[in-house]
Specification:
Blueprint: H1 2-13, H2 16-23, H3 27-41, E1 46-49, E2 52-55, H4 57-84, E3 89-96, H5 97-102, H6 104-114, E4 118-125, H7 127-135, E5 141-144, E6 154-167, E7 180-181, H8 182-186, E8 191-193, H9 198-206, E9 217-219, H10 222-230, E10 236-239, H11 240-249, E11 253-255, E12 257-258, E13 263-270, H12 278-295
Parallel strand pairs: 3-4, 3-5, 7-12, 8-9
Antiparallel strand pairs: 1-2, 5-13, 6-10, 6-11, 6-13
Domain HTH lysR-type: 1-56
Protein name: DNA-binding transcriptional regulator, LysR family
Family: Belongs to the LysR transcriptional regulatory family.
């Protein structure tokens, strides 16, 4: 698991040197481990420059899957710990990628501060898979950004976000004198999330009346798409939550599309009955209070 943690560390901290330093691994040992991993996968995972080693687009995709493997391993250890010691309560949460990456850490940090005896299991999936795990009882509550919710589940709004078209600063769209049209966006090959994700579903619904170009790539996380856009692979439509920092720094530009509205409602979902009690209900109430405080 060590080399996978190192790969994720490069994604999180921006360089191999920073990742190895935080992990307490000597730089030469970290470099050897990464080269061995590259040989195993048969592809370059790092861009090696005099200023430091960063992830290639392929490396970013592998880092996304490594993050899931590590999360699953962590969940396994949590389950084993829960089997060894009695706990007052357990809470299993399903969260879509956007929510899990950008909102869930803060939510769970506050929840754990108020409920230290609750064992939390987090399953990161796309929205369609979250609906499935809530429906079959694998998860106590789910958090999704899908535009619709199965009629068999109850839901409540917990937050909102916006999807935007993003490109690097040197993209031809940044020099246009007129806004991009919806038809032009639909006719462009984009980097997109996989079918079943809330981001993909929202985009597909918005463009369903237009002739669509085939995607450049389908990737499993906003982080992988964002890195590919930064690398010049192509434009994408992503949540403002996923690109806020890059837009603020100027690494990415938001392209206005005339007449296109991609606001989204983020929801908590659960099985009947309508009244959600226990730790799941406590979490949803905390999340709603947090959202309310942001708007006050």
């Amino acid at each position: 698991m060590g080399v996978l943690e190192l790969l994720v560390g490069v994604d999180d901290h921006g360089s191999l040197s920073a990742a190895s330093r935080i992990a307490g691994i000597a730089q030469p040992n970290a470099s050897r481990s990464m080269k061995q991993l590259e040989r195993q996968f048969g592809m370059p995972l790092l861009q090696r420059k005099p200023t430091g080693s960063t992830l290639t687009p392929q490396g970013t995709v592998i880092a996304h899957w490594a993050r899931q493997v590590l999360a699953d391993a962590s969940q396994m250890l949590d389950v084993a710990e829960g089997m060894r010691a009695e706990r007052s309560a357990e809470l299993t949460i399903g969260a879509s990628m956007t929510v899990a990456e950008h909102l869930m850490p803060g939510w769970l940090g506050r929840f754990r501060g108020l409920n230290p005896d609750v064992t939390i299991h987090l399953q990161v999936r796309n929205s369609a898979q979250v609906f499935d795990c809530v429906t079959d009882g694998t998860c106590d509550v789910g958090f999704v950004e899908s535009p619709s919710v199965p009629s068999s589940l109850h839901s409540i709004t917990v937050a909102r976000d916006q999807l935007v078209v993003v490109v690097p600063p040197d993209h031809p769209w940044t020099r246009r004198r007129r806004p991009l049209t919806i038809a032009e966006l639909a006719a462009t090959s984009l980097l997109v999330r996989e079918p079943g994700s809330g981001t993909r579903t929202t985009l597909d619904l918005a463009l369903q009346e237009y002739e669509r170009a085939s995607p450049i790539l389908e990737l499993g996380s906003a982080a992988a798409i964002r890195t590919s856009v930064l690398g010049g692979v192509g434009p994408a439509v992503l949540s403002t939550l996923a690109v806020e920092e890059q837009v603020r720094s100027g690494e990415l530009r938001v392209i206005h599309v005339d007449g296109l509205e991609l606001g989204r409602t983020l929801r908590a979902v659960w099985r009947p009955p309508r009244q959600l009690d226990g730790p799941a209900g406590d979490l949803v109430r905390l999340v709603r209070r947090t959202a309310q405080q942001r708007t006050d």
